[in-house]
Amino acid sequence: MTDNPSEGQTTSDPVDPLNLFAEEVARAVDGQAEVAHQTAKVRVPSTAWKESLTIVAGDLGLGFLSWLSAVDWTDEVAVGDEPDQPVERHYELLCAVSNLTDGRLVLISTEIDHESPSIESVADVYPGANWHEREAAEMFGIEFVGHPDLTKLYLPDEFEGFPLRKNYPLLSREVKPWPGKVDVEEMPEEDGGPTTENPGS
Amino acid sequence: MMDPTLAHHLSEVAVSVEVETEGMTLNIGPQHPSTHGVLRLVARVDGERASSVRPVIGYMHRGYEKLAEVRTYPQIITIVNRIDWVSGFANEIPFVVAAERLMDIEAPPRAQWIRLVLTEMARISSHLVFMASYPLELGAATPLFFALRERERVLDLLESVTGGRFHPNFNRLGGVKPVYAAGPTTKKAGMDIPAGFLNETRDAMGKVLGTCEEIEDLVAGNEVFLARTKGVGVIPVEIGASYGVSGPNLRASGTDFDLRKVSDYLPYADFDFDIPVRPNGDCWDRWWVRLQEIRQSARIITQAIDGLPTGPLQAKVPRIIKVPAGETYVRAENPKGEMGYYLVSTGGLGPYRLKIRSASFSNLSLLPWLLEGALVPDFIAIMGSLDFVLGDVDR
């Protein structure tokens, strides 16, 4: 896995099979390919979301739906770490699809507006997206237009708020800081003090 | 005497009138022995047939994706092995591999082989639970005793190495947990697994294979079992794929797709093993594929302990682990199907976002399609054959 010195970077090695595959998908859906850390991603505009996945599922034969979910990109973080670089506020919607022969997998990605997040549902392209979209809707507040039944999946019907949004606080963390974080900060320096591996004597 | 034409007319009426029955809503669960956790089904039934089924899930939702955003990488390993608790060890692998990929490190060969052995043990123990519970749900209690006896043997081996039967928490970024008493692991590489482990494993694998024979003799040709499972709950491969159904459930539908053969998250390329496939996609085929997978896993383990490489257990990692910014998706062939983690790091002590792709979630999402038009008495046979765990559905 680490034989390739450019591993981990966005490679442009033209003969790398994963690059070729990402380029092929990008050409078919008129998107932008990027490959990093052995993961192929193709960015498409949100207006072409459903159309792109229809092409991917049909012509490209990537009929296996691995998952569909979102990432909330924002600097306003209630819990966890903020991004080290300032990011433009948006939701990134991702759909991972694969074939059932050589296991090539591609993430189709699009950006959705943060103010009124809404996108076309792909539940009739990949029927399995039905539940994934219900989960993304209740967790991020993204509206999937044309979804047959966009009710809550995990959460109780009366639940308010969208828990996986970065500005949604985690109540237990508000009440009491996670002790693990303290442990990490107080760990001994690289060359000093006893450690579990070398307890001293 | 009645006019013959009238009598005929009356008899016509009698047969053409059907009893009008209203459809009925049948609630199954949330507490039900065949649901392996807490699952509720709301079925519309017309007589003995279901016209629609709506699974209600979320009773065990623990919000691991949010919890992962406020924990450090080593802490997350303890929560991910609670997703599918029947094969806890296997859940850790794709997560640590994802983090290692972003850090651009790789576990040493010995650590990778130990991971592989324990993953296959998790697969055997998970499939043995299925071998125990599935016939039981259909009324056959005997296989349970054979399967659970063997599972206990495998769990003992897992425990002897990791200290945990269900939640090993044994993987570390860059390797596996060194045994405390063994001192600095680069020096005493031979002391990382307990004495006698290799011989006991070889012995146990022989017994597992023997139990497979016993289970096959007991169940495979059993008339009642065949009647309950043959041709029941058929999943065509394209339908299954479009729902994300994976693992043995899909390989019983005629595809030989197995991530162990096409992905390099563990060194499976060094091993000689077959992918059991069945063409019909019914309950019996799903049972058969799992039984054969136990045999193949035993075969892999036997090869691995014969050729276990020596060397360190841990790659060099900083004491405080920060994962460089990046995104990667790593998926693995878990006992229940494809398990994967989409890890987004922005360079902090914990992930910025961790999407957990669990096998049972997608396998269960097929249920409304699969149970539509099914007989209510077949529900148990069909649901049991999918081998889901609700912790893996709800995450």
Describe this structure in words.
The complex is a heterodimer of chains A (201) and B (395). With 201 residues, chain A is an alpha/beta fold. Chain A has one domain (17-169): Beta Polymerase, domain 2 (2-Layer Sandwich), CATH 3.30.460.80. Helix content of chain A is 23%, strand content 21%. Chain A has a five-stranded mixed β-sheet, covered by helices on one side. A two-stranded parallel sheet of chain A has the order 6-7. In chain A, a hairpin with a 2-residue loop joins strand 1 (32-36) and strand 2 (39-43). By secondary structure, chain B is α+β, with helices and mostly antiparallel strands. Chain B has a single domain, classed as Orthogonal Bundle (Cytochrome-c3 Hydrogenase, chain B). In chain B, 47% of the residues lie in helices and 12% in strands. In chain B, the strands form three sheets. In chain B, strands 1-2-3 form a three-stranded antiparallel β-sheet. In chain B, strands 6-7-8 form a three-stranded antiparallel β-sheet. In chain B, helix 3 packs antiparallel against helix 4 (88-103) and helix 4 (88-103) packs antiparallel against helix 5 (109-137).
Task: Give the C-alpha Rg of chain A.
Answer: 21 Å
CATH-wise, what's the superfamily of chain B? Cytochrome-c3 Hydrogenase, chain B
Number of helices of chain A: 5
- Report mean pLDDT of chain A, rounded to a whole number: 80
Characterize the main sheet of chain B: 3 strands, antiparallel
Kindly provide the radius of gyration of chain B, computed on alpha-carbon positions and rounded to a whole number of angstroms.
24 Å
Instruction: Characterize the quaternary organization of these chains.
Output: heterodimer
| Helical residue percent band of chain A | 10-25%
Helix/strand class of chain B: alpha+beta
The portion of residues forming beta strands of chain B comes to 5-15%
Number of beta strands of chain A: 7
What would CATH call the architecture of chain B?
A: Orthogonal Bundle
**H/E element string of chain A?**
HEEHEEEEHEHH
How many structural units, i.e. domains of chain A? Answer: 1
Helical content of chain B, roughly?
Answer: 40-55%
Strand content of chain A: 15-25%
The number of strands of chain B is 8
What low-confidence regions of chain B span 5 or more consecutive residues with pLDDT below 50?
A: 181-190
Counting H and I runs of at least 4 residues, what is the number of helices of chain B?
16
